[in-house]
Structures are given as C-alpha cells and as structure tokens.
Amino acid sequence: MRFKLYIAVVSALLLLALGVPALAAATDPKTFVFVTFGDVDSLDPAYAYDTASGEVIHQLYDNLVAYEGGSLDKIIPMLATQVPSKANGLISQDGLTVKFPIRKGVKFHNGDVLTPADVEYTFERAMLADPAGGPVWMFFEPLLGVQTLREVIAKAGGPGVDAKDFDAKKLDAKVVQKVYDIIDKTVEVEGDYVVFHLAKPYPAFLQILAKGGSWSSIVNKKWMVENGAWDGKATTWPKWYDQAKEEMTLYQKAMGTGPFRLLTWDRNAGQIILKRFDDYWRGPAKLETVFIKYVEEANTRMLMLQTGEADAAVIQQQYLDQIRNVKGIVVKEHLPYIGNTALLFNYTIPVQGNEDIVGSGKLDGNGVPPDFFADIHVRKAFNYAFDYETYIKEVAMGAGSKPYGPAPAVLPFVNKNRPWYSFDLKKAEEEFKQAFGGELWKKGFKLTILYNTGNEQRKTAAEILEANIESINPKFKIDVQGMQWSTYLSKLRASALPVFFMGWHMDFPDAHNFYMPYMHSAGAFAGYTGQGMVDLAKAKFDALIEQAISTYDNAKRQELYYKLQDLAYEYAVAVFYIEPEEHRVYRDWVKGVVYNPAYSANYDFYTIYKEVR
Amino acid sequence: MLTYIARRLLLLPVVLFGVSIFIFGVMSFLSPYELVSTYIKSPEELKNQSLDALVEKYGLNDPWHLRYIRWLGNVLHGNLGYSESANMYVLDAIKQRFPASLELALFAVVPVVFGGIWLGVVSAVHHNRLLDHATRIFAIIGWSLPSFVAGILALMFFYGYLGWFPPGRLSAWAHEIIASGGFRQYTGMNTIDAILNWNWPIFWDAVRHLVAPTITLAWLWWAFILRITRSSMLDVLNKDYVTTARAKGLPERLVINRHAKRNAMIPVTTVAGLMVLGLLGGMAITETVFDYKGIGLLTVQGAQQLDYTLVLGTALFYGVLLVIGNLVVDVLYAIIDPRVRLE
Amino acid sequence: MVTKKLLRNPISMLGLIILLGFVILAVFAPWIAPTPERYKDEPYRIPRYGYRATPTPPSSEHPFGLTQGQHDIFYGIVWGTRTAFRVGILVAGISCLIGVVVGSISAYVGGRVDEFLMRVVDIFMSFPFIIAAIVVTSVFGKSLTNVMVALIFFSWMNYARLIRGNILQVKQEEYVMAARASGVSHFKIILRHLLPNSIFPVLIQASMSLGSVVLTVAGLSFLGLGAEPGYADWGQMLSFARNWLMGTPGNPLAYWYVVAYPAAAIVLFVLAWNLIGDAFRDILDPRIQA
Description:
The structure holds 3 protein chains of 3 kinds. Chain B is mainly α. Chain B has 15 helices and 2 strands. The longest helix of chain B has about 40 residues. The model of chain B has no long low-confidence stretch (mean pLDDT about 80). Chain C is about 65% helix and about 0% strand. The mean pLDDT of chain C is about 85. At the B-C interface, helix 1, helix 6, helix 7, helix 10 and helix 13 of B face helix 2, helix 5, helix 6, helix 12 and helix 13 of C.
C-alpha cells in the first residue's frame, strides 16, 4: 500500500511540475500569437484569392500605394513615391496612362534593391500565368478589357476560349510572341517610372493596386528567376501558364519588401511563423515574431485567448457573449465590412432532371414553373416577405445593417435616401395576388430552398422566408433543405437552383465590384441566375455598369450608380438582406491595431505592439 | 507459422486494391463539378466563373476508371499525389502526421493499461461486492461517454480552468526553435526527438501537451482493460494453486500480487497491442478536440473536402497498418499462449 | 435462468431500469412532447421558438431551454430517444442479418466459398472504418441515413465470424448429418436446424452493440457528418453544444442546459446497454462461474 502512496504522490508532483510553468509563463512582448481557422491556400500573390492567404501575404509584401490608416478614400504612396492623379499629371488627360514613380533604396528580404523592372515583372508574370480561379482578372479588366489570358490568346490567333484540351505549351510560336507583345505593352518601365496603359479609363485602378489587394504585391524579379519562375522572355511563358499551385515559385516561399519575412509555413502544425525584417524601408516593426495559428474549434480558440496563450483570435459573432466583458479581453464591434449577402433568383429554372427541387415544374400548386422568378411580382413578394430586422437582430446578433441595394453602404455612390424593401406581409400578399395574372394565388406553389449544409445562418434565413410565405397563403409551400457543398456547387453550375444564397466580399472598394457580379450579364452570378436574368441585364443594366466604370468623373459615376440602384429596386433583382459587420477580439495588451475594411488581412502586424505590465 | 504469416501478407495487396477501388467507386458518383468543390471552399470564393477552367486544370472531367489508372500508375511509382486540403504531398503528410498520432497512442496506452489493470484487480478481488460494482460502473461510464464530450470537458478543466495542459502539440516558443533549425526532427515524435536533441524544455513542453488527451483516452478505455483483467483474475483466483496458497495461510495481498496477478496478465498484454491499433483508428475525434495535429484530423478534414488524393493515400496507409498490426497481434498471441494455433 | 440472473445483479438491474425509462419516453413521445401544428408532418424537426443565435435558458414553457437558433431542447431529447432506438436497432439488426447470412453460407457450404467469404471479411476488417464512413457521407450527402448505411457496411463482419464458428460446431451434430442424408433442402437445414442452435450468442452481441452504435453516430456527428441542426438527434444537439461551454464572464455555467441534457441522455442510454452487456458477459463467461 505504501508503494501505491508513493506513486500517487509522485504523479501528483509531476502534474504540478508540468502544470505550473504554464501558469507562470507571462506573455512575451515581442511575440504575437493570432489564432484563426482555415488554412492558407497559397502564398503566391498571383494565385491567392482567399482571405487566409491574403492575411499572410499582407505582412510579407508591399504594394505601390496604400490606404491611409483606416480610410478608404485617402490613398497614400507606398513603393511608389507619388499617388497618380490627373492633377499631378501622372494620369493622362484621357485617363488611359497611369504612371508611378518608383521609390529608391527599398530592400527586399534578401537585400536586393527594388527597381521599376520588379514592378513590371510582377504584373506581367501574373497576367501570363493567369492561374484558373485566381485574382488576375483584376489586371486584365482595366488593362485589356478582358477577363482571362485565354481571351488574349484567342485574340492573338490562338485557340478560342471554349476550345477543349487547351495546352499553352503547344501554342504556335507566333501566337506566343504576340500574346507576350500584347501583355508587355500594358506595363512598361520608363526610367524611374512604371507606366500602365489602360484599355479604357478605370477609376478603380488604384484600389486594385493598393495594399490590401494581395494580388498587387510587388515581387523580386531577380530572385524569382533564380528560383525557377518565368524568366521574363517573350517565348518561354507558356511553361508557367496556369501551373499547378504547388509548382508555382511563390507557393510556399516569399520574397517581398514587407515588414515581415516568412520563417515557415508549417502545414504540419497548422501555422505560419513570421520574423521581423530589420531593414524594412519604413523602419522595423515592433513585433519580432508573429504566429498565425489555425485552430478549427471555436471553443479552443476562445480558451487560448482566455488563458493569454493567444493575443488575438477569430471568434464568431454568436460566441462573443462568452468573452465580452472578460477582464483582459478587448472586443471591438460594429466595424465596417465591405460585403453583403443576398438571396438570388433563377429566372429560368430547368425542370428536366430537376424535379426534386422544382416539383411538377408547372403552375399547379405542386411545384414552380421555370419562369417563376421571371415574374417581377414574385421577386417583389419575396423581398417583402423577408423579415430583415429579425434576421439582423437575432441571427446576426445585431452585427449588420440592412442594405440599400447591391453596393454596401460604406462605399461611395450609394443613395441612402432610397431604402431597400422592408418586411411587409400585406404588400407581399398584394404582389403574390398579381403574380401570373392571379393564377399563382389560386393554384399556389411548392418550392425547395436549398442551402449548403453547415451554414446555419443561411438555413435560418430560408426558414424565416418559409414561415412568412407559408403564413400568407396555405397553398404556398416552401421546403428548406440542406445540401452538401459539393452537390450545391454542381447544382449552381448547372443553374438548377431556383433560389440560392450568395455572399460577396469586395475585391477592391468600389461600387463596380458589386454591380458587376449581381447585375451584369457577364458577372460572377449571371451563370447561376438563368437566361432570363442575362437577357434582362443585357437590355437594362450592362451599358450603365460599363459606363460607370469608364469615367473618372465622380458626379457622373454617382448619377449612374444611383440609377443602377433604382433599377435594382425596380426589378427586385435579389433579396439583399444584410451587410454584415466585422469585429476584432484581442487581449488588452495589444496596441496599435489599425482596422481597414479594404484589407484582406485581419491585422496589419506592422503597426501592432504589446504593452505588457 | 511462417506460411501463415506469408498467407496473411499476401492478402495485403488485395486489401489495398479493395480499399482503393471502394473509394474510387464511391467517388465515381460525383460529377466533375462536385469534385471541383475541393478547390472552392465556400460560395464566397465563387468569384469569377472559373469552375470550368478548374475542372479542366485538374482533369476532373475524365471518367473515373481513367483517373484510377492514372492514379495507380503514379502510386506504383511511389507518388501518392498532392493533397489540396493538406497543402502538401500525401506521402509527406502521412510521414509527418502519423508519428504525432503514434506518439499520442503510445502515451495513452500506459495509463490505460496500468489503470485498467489496477481497476480490474480491485474489482475481481472484491467480486460482487460494493467496490466491484463501483469500479465497474465508474469504468463503464467512461466507456459510455461520447469521446468528444469527455475531451472537451478535460480541455475545459485542465486548460481553461487550471491553465495547465494546453491544446496543440507544442508551445509557440518551441515551434520557433524547431522552425529556426535549432532542433532536429528524427522521428516526428516530439518527446523522443527532444531526448535525442537533449532538449529538456521541449521535452517537458511536449509532455505537457500530451497529458490532457492521454487522461481522456484513459478513462474512455479503462472499461475495456478492466473487463479482461477482471475475468482472467476471477478465473485465476479459482485455480487450485491460488486456493492452495490461501490455505497455506499466505496473506491475501501476497496471494493476489504473487500468484494471481502475474498469471492473469497474459491476455491483458496481448490486448494492449490491439489497443494501440484501436486508439489509432479512433483518434480523429480526440485530435480534433485537442487541436492535436495528427493523421486522424488530417484524414477527416481531407475527406470532408472530398480531397480524394489524400483520402486514398491515408486509407492505403491505414490498410497496411491494420493488416500488419492485426497480424502482429495474432502472432504474439500465439507465441504467448501455446494453446492458440494459427490456422 | 439468464433473465433471473440479470434481474438479481444490481448492475444489470440499474441498466434495465434506465432502459425502461427510455422505452417509455420513446413510445409516449407524442404525448410527452406533442408536435406543434405547424410541424405536424415532420415530427423529427425540433420546433423553433425564434431565431436568435445564442441559447435561451430553461423557462416554464421550455423546461430544458432552447439551443442556439432556438430549438426546444426538451422536445429534442424526447424525440431523440426514438432516433436513438431507430439508429441502434436498424444498424445492429441489419448488420447482424448480413453477418448471419454471410457467416452461415460460409460455414455451411465450406471449401472455396468459405475461403473466399472469409477473405472478404478480412478485407472489410482491414478497412479504416472512420475514413470509409466519412467518404460515404461526404459523397452521398450528410444525413443520418447515410451514416447508418456506412456503419452497417462496416460492422457486419464480426457477426459473420461469430455465426460461422458456431455453425461449424453444430454442423457436426448427428441430427444435422441425418437431415442432410435424408435430402432435406440446404435452405431448410440452415433455417430449421443450424441457425436456431447457433444464433443466440450472435443476437446477444447485436443487442449489446446498440449502445455503442449510438455513441459512434454521435462521434460522427461531432465530425460534422450526422444530422443537420434542428433534427431530433442527441448527437447533433451535443455536437452543436460544444461551443457553449465557456459560459459568460462570472457565470461559467451560463449555458449548462445546452450541454447537460443531451449529454445526460446519450450517456444514460449507452450506459444502460453497457451495464446490461457487462452483466451479460459475466453470466455467459464460463470462467466466472463461482
């Protein structure tokens, strides 16, 4: 028995010995631990298009220009020494040439000095690589008026955009050269300047280039070529066209001019470790080491923040009650976010093979006809039937506001005297009574609203609609069903979903970035909203959207976007139901946090320091 | 016995073929646009209409038997492919993640076996008395707990409340030392590597991260060991030599420790081997709770994202592990207990 | 005799009493927790009383409180009992059936067929079950049914082995030999003579696995594979409770009800089966016949 006592005592002591250091360990003022979830997709600025990757790239690289502090409208120089404008002559009078004087003496992490050639290389390499699903369309649109390199190749006499089994390596040498020539002409070095040649005036061009947009991070040409990236020659680029992401040079390496350098992307432990770059041109950062850790469980992240192991953490809105008012934890709420969520309609719902969603496919009370949402009264009725206030107050826990239309209210050119539809069952009933010449009210319908499983907020949004619409008329039946994300995606692709939820988060803070996906016939969602919507957009919206992005005249832009906002309302193009708000959660010893909604990063670690008592 | 081992090993390729065909077969129900979801994680990422470009890029349009042949060809050349969800080559992912899980399993076996044996002996010695019922119910409650509930409660208590045993595998400072090259990773098992590097701070740090999951696993598995110990103890306690020892007037403690316990241990030791396999198989949940980046967590995340390259790779790996592991257990059992003959 | 022993053993008595409670809950669910009119055709959908994303504490209308998204916990627990029994019985029953069919064919026919079937069993046993379950549910969609299918697919092998061993013993008995010699059909022999004399241990094993099936399903729910939130399933409820453990500042037990009720339900249910099972094994273990 005595022996057992020994074991008990020894193990108790051991537990204490193991545990106590954790209690004693104070937080290190030079090290910052940020816990979030998800994982980086790629560290290559030409490929990365998700916020987790943008978060890291933001710390490693600099852009030509930047936003001042938390502002969206004030753009300041960064790697360029001046911000181009018509006033200083760096933007030509026709708006087609934009010149950037490049800063001298800026060092990359390996000691190389930044040159205008690096800037030229950055953009040309990105455009010639054009990874599928990547962000490079943002260069093509202003510079060449196209969306992909495939379009350029087609223009240069190569295979058409829809040609199957395309292989850039098999392109004709002449086409290869010609494509290069086209791309080469868009960005050129002139002495200490880099000059961009635009296809048409593009007022949001500076926003695309500004810090916060990871795609415009300036890379080191010499280092890139040494490390196996495109060598800058006219004839060789097909080798690097649309590579597998893991084969891209910057996939897991980084060589920027940013305040931090990459120590490791430790995919094994699920973390990124950044070290301070002491030769940073704006002076070294205050933090020495930054950890970005990926922890999937929200509960674990909260605990890490509570114990102080983490300095900052991403915690979803609904869990904030658990840490708000906890001593030592700061919760900054109601921060602006440039994005919104909407329920979109499919104007031409396919029936064949889609019976599980549309039922009979007829206007007979057992399904919905293909043109169900082509009837404007149905769209309006849905807009009236959504309880915006309840959703924002209860589901979003008050973190958000009702949109005015496609573009979020934080952006310029939003007419705030023109509110969006509000919850009104009476009006919804009136609209339903007018739909299909009164037939719909008599016959009723049965509709399935699908959401991607795991997204509880969307499920609830659908159930709110379900409850409200079913209360209007007993013949109206709505069925809410969850669907695997993969299946949901393929249904979207086949434009088989009658209604679907979509969120849009800005690429760059400009109204254009919202009218394009929601209302243009070539926008991101046009493929899912059916031919009916495409026809409508072509007839009514496209020309206005294109005009609005082709002029620097702000008064003119405002007029056009106000008009588009009215049209969005008039045609009830979607149920825009929330513009969410952001929040940040960190320990009270964290100082110098700058929030800018245009950053894809949660934190800009350059300005942050820790004040440990 | 050698022929038996050879025959079992011959089964291995068949198992691996079956496993891969099964997964490919199931995956063949997916359309290219479902498979492409691996590369697009949420509707927010549907920026431009590049689904077709992605489908083309990753060859998802090909019929599944073509993809299978392509995959098989690569595997035969030792290339398990690149995992989109893990962001690394599948082989590297297994090489780096498996030691983590193994380390946890090996650590957990110790308290499970010793605690379980102790509980089993207590329960057998007090057969059908209150203490017997109490220990059994205690252990069975553990056996009846959803492992994630036990895990989360342990995490809340040991980390949230006491602040002792953090989640993850190492603290930030230890990771920094490893990333800066001041620490060589020989095995991927942090505790062993720390000893090999003679780095005691990291050793203690690694142990500290192992305690909470180990305690959780122990409670979950005690009932298993308790049952085996108890029944073999009861068996032995009825044997003639124990009765004789008792009759000789030996104190009860000596009877149990010297005579009964030793003989009752044989089945328990073989079961411990089986348990390591069981622990490894069911580790995904524990790893999720404690954010312990092992192979279970990796596989679950991969499978949820339909990352079939990763799923296939880890499934093959588990297949090998299970076939060989089961074989080892069987052989060990035959060696220890001569009554067992391998057919 | 066995029943008597079970009733005399305090451990199994405890199990039986708990189990009886659950049976009553399941049978009388429509009276204990009536389905509101609006949800009449979907009784397994837990009614919502609002949309708020944080849980609401117990009140007189909702004695167990409301989950995140305001689903009634009491309703979920009561109807979840039916789900638990359904999942347990279907998975244990069907996999037992498959096992019995495969095992008896294997044992009765013998030779090459036996060899082949046993190798198939080996292959299935070498299959990483969790991976397979996740693959099946990720491909065919996240739902309780698919989880059950995956479970059945990978749990019939033990029954097959068990019944095979038993039949191989019985097969040598004289009356079976006699029946064979007199030309009784194979099917009849298996059904009339072999199975009745060998199936008992298998049935016990199957019924004892009911609890662990429910536990496995809950685990898969935790990994994000089971029922959707709002479905009357304990595992689902518990898996969504995981993020409410911290409580609010100064009140660490602020959300206890979100966790405690479903956890208690699941633990008691599984415990009941395990207690009975443990006692059962004692009774059947020839080595403990003191």
